[in-house]
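Example complex used in Figure S2.
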Amino acid sequence: MLYREAGQYKSTYAADMAVFPLREDRIGIAVILGIALVAVPFLGSDFFIASVMIPFLIFSLAAIGLNILTGYTGLISLGTAAFMGVGAYACYKLTTFFPNVNIIVLILVSGLFSAGIGVLFGLPSLRIKGFYLAVATLAAQFFLQWAFVRVPWLFNYNASGAIEVPQRTLFDIPVTGASATPETRYFVCLGLVVVLTWFASNLVHGKLGRSWMAVRDMDIAAELMGIKLLNAKLGAFAVSSYFAGVAGAMMIFLWYGGGEAADVFSIRLSFNILFMVIIGGLGSLIGSFFGAAFLSVLPTALKFGLPALGVPLTGATAEHVTFMLVGALIIFFLIVEPHGLARLWQIGKQKLRTWPFPY
Amino acid sequence: MSDIATRPAPNVFANPMVKAGLIAAAIVAAIAIGVRLDPSNTLYAIFVDPFQQMVQAPDLLVQTIWEGLVSGVLYALIALGFVLIFKASGVFNFAQGIMVVFAALTLVGLYEKGVPAFLAVILTLGVMFALAVTIERVVLRPLVNQPDIILFMATFGITYFLIGFGESLFGGNPKQMITEQLYLPKGAIDLQILGGLVSLQKIDIAAAIIASLMIGLLALFFQYTRIGRALRAVADSHKAALSVGISLNQIWVIVWFTAGIVALITGIMWGARSDVSFALEIVALKALPVLILGGFTSIPGAIVGGLIIGVGEKLGEFYWGPLIGGGIESWLAYFIALGFLLFRPQGLFGDKIIERI
Amino acid sequence: MKTSILMKGAALGALLASTAAIMPASAQDTIYFSNNAYRTGPFSGSGIPIGDGMRDYISMINERDGGVNGVKIIYEECETGYDTKKSIECYEQVKSKTIVYSPWSTGATLAAIPRAHVDKLPILSMAYGLSASADGTNFPWVFIPPLTYWDGASVMVKHMAAELGGMDKLKGKKLGLIHLDAPFGKEPIPVLENLAKKYGFELKLYPVAAADMQNQGSLWLSIRRDRPDFLYNQGWGAMNPTAVKEAIKNNFPINKLVGVWWAGGDDDARAGGAEAKGYRSLNFNAAGQNFPVIQDILKHVVEKGKSTTPKEKVGENLYNRGVYNSMLVVEAIRTAQKLTGKKVITPEDMRRGLESLNVDEARLKEIGMAGFASPVKITCADHSGHHKAYVAEWDGTKWTQKGDWIEPMKDEVRPLIEANAKDYVEKAGNWPKRTEPCEKSS
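Predicted assembly (1158 residues):
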């Protein structure tokens, strides 16, 4: 009744090809952005913003990156965390060399380094695929993680071996460093994520994105149709690693605020992001957000939310229950809808379209 | 994405861009290494010195190779669990690592509760069987015919669940493996050979023997029993197997149970080397390069791959590791496997599937 | 069909509901102390006894004395699983409530240090964390008593010299450092390198990647090849029992293997069985139950069934270290109460209390800890104190003291700390200048 396309006529090709052809969808996006821009920072507590929203946004971005590689191009990677790490260390080095350049520019540039490394480790994808490729990308994961610890130049020879995030400002407001408020960091994250999501959306709807999907569905067929596998696959690695790199730089600079970065970008994180992508929905940008919400927010919500709701679970028991519950939920969701939360969302929208008269 | 198929595509490597990329990779690696090295004798340190060391101290060389073989056997055991499940159900079982921990914890936990050691082994096998049945009922059956990656994901759910479940049952503190109660030997055999001392741990020898016995039994089981033949049929084609009346559900329970037995034995062996704790789960990742080297579907591949990886990484770490500060063991295995993959994309013993459009 | 739609709807609903907002609770006429515990995960073997010790000491103070000067301490644990991400979550969760932040991992400490200086929340990282934070002038909110990893490394060198028969005997010897390949493990390297140069011994590094903690075969082969005279093990978690087992396997004299204090768990040594007798580790608290304070914990807490700790685990080395950490917290609260005259203190007061902390022999005796630890004194400039440590030896069933308490080489460590603190502050850019005044007494 409220949500249907009846009466909305498309009179131009541009309108027909729009990402959100439905007026209701556009309103929905505007409402979500409005909530994200106004309601969250003004109504949410510091804890909610710093420990729920910022991680959610950063993981969403990383998941979008991996989704481009795995969901759109069909190449599984288990090295996402390492590529994120490259972004973080690149950003740290850049801000050491160019302390006066705006930190947001540096975060965006540091993704390029990650893209370069991503292409390098993407080379085997030209020859192997499937789980073989997945395991091959583990070489990147372990090698880069080793390098983060072993090349002292990367962490400026700090005795602690950790990245120390310096204070950088934007319009005289601290953006990074400890004195940056959670709200500021949140706004920066939100801005970056929105812009990059828009960029990703255009990419996957464009020529490059279509060649990725052709490669995913069957690469030999795609090659016969004249798609250059080399460009498509390495392009996917580059773009995916770029997103991962930016997410990694954001993770250290806007969320963690420094620390043992090599330890942060471990194999566990790689797996987690892959699972966000699968749970959220392969080949879906909105699915990346759902997946990030599920695997990053849910454990936090269970851990801190249950005691607040009066469920007397604390400490180790709560942790065990959280683990079991998340595991069970993953299986439950896969059984209910193997194509991920994005598919659930689509089905929901379809139902809404015909509601209240489904016949 | 559903197939692990690969195809011969040497023409891709003829591409000048790829070549340039590979050369760039080599240069980057050389620079990375060069940072740690004295430039005057780099080549000497890489190409001459390690071999001199090998000749000068052959006892250490023998010991290194032995250590490599032993850890290779243990990697192979974990990889075997993966291969069994992958062959029969096409599931890349991420939970194999936690199954190792879970089996070992159950065994030790039962023993601590006062159950005699061998009864505890039998009970643990019962638990692993129950686990196999549960996984088949709750996870695999509803997900039948889904893409591989979904099943892979489901095993991650199992991992999460087992971590929480295992810790709440047995607690997180590390436990001692009950080696003596299981009559596993202790101590070492010291051999005075090659002008030095080579010491072989009895537990390692036992591990090698048990592993070979188990692999032999598995081979016999696959070759000569009805269930084994059914398993091979399922591995070849699910649909064809179903059409001749083989129960997929039954096969899956059996294969997960077999993987559970392998996990228990692996857990006992690793537990005897250090202790039984959740940190063991990480060791299971070492089975992955073994898998790509040996091929996902080949049991001999898992064994040979395990041995190559084990010996290769120990030799690499021992003789070349110090050149770049050591600790290269964590990634060397993957690079060895990657090197092999560039020449045989389906792994050493993997099935070659020819792709058609 | 109907049910499956319902199920899908329920699934989506569950997802949305579970992501709902999270609200913290409050505290009243009590002092709230939240501790980062890790009773789960790969490092829980060490985390459980430490958490038990910390919890039981606070419960004992509440049970026996009715709190500190009548103010009960509410002790809560925030479970981290030794994971930096969860530790940061815990920090954000407790920062407005807790009186002191107890990070319990080097990674968590590093991430918390910049935040704490803005949020004005004291951090008590007892003998772990950032060594440079012992500089109170630059790090007014971080406390790292009783000694740092750098002090530990210098104690190790002194111990080695004592075993060899004098500092001059160090020349030409080889010291191997087995370390976790992470910032925590690499911490002692700068001090050991300096000392190696000064005393003419050779330093060999044996890094262990976190993924290979239980897979140290090739590392011990290298040790066999290099034949170091002593080994110092800067390890944690499952790495330690594996190292002890490998040392035995490779016929390395077990009494030449000395662990940092975190490698001194009872479970670490027990892994080696009878042959682990003689394994050593640095220590700054005594093990065992023969102290009035431990007896009080047994009497007031454990035997009354108010603790989940099994009785035989009370008095283990890491348990007692947890007790020691809680003692520091309680004594700092007491000091802060005395300084401010308030009963319920704020984190700011707690910082003053920590900075004026002075637990001397007499005070140790009063609280039933005579001989349990060396006296601790923190000053305005020195947030560690660089106190004495001793070498503990495993006798097959328990840890015993071997030799005297050893003073760290403060003259070696202190300049390094000050230089590194300066470096840290410079690189951070706009680091908050210390505005907190020093107490008159210190």
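Chain B touches chain A through 70 residues (CB under 8 Å). Residues 58-89 of chain B form the longest helix (32 residues).
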